[in-house]
Amino acid sequence: MKVDKLSISFDPDRGDAVRAAAYRSGRGLSGWLAEAAAARLRAEELAAFLDGWESQHGPLTAEELARATAETGVPRGSNREPGA
Description:
This protein is mainly alpha-helical. It has one domain. The chain contains three helices and no strands. Helix 1 packs across helix 2. It is elongated and about 40 Å long. The C terminus is likely disordered.
């Protein structure tokens, strides 16, 4: 399998936390980071889809948001950057 090697930098505390999280998960650091990146990309794609849907159909109702939260266990906006 072809891979794309990247070099990344973290502040020391974040680097320690990432290594610890990878260790706790039983995955290697590269696998853990790849999985985290994939999750972030999925969240951004979903947010873009929902933004487009709402621009065409209007905002989701409180009932629709409550149903989505109940079905997924993830409240809307939980993956957005703070202050975004």
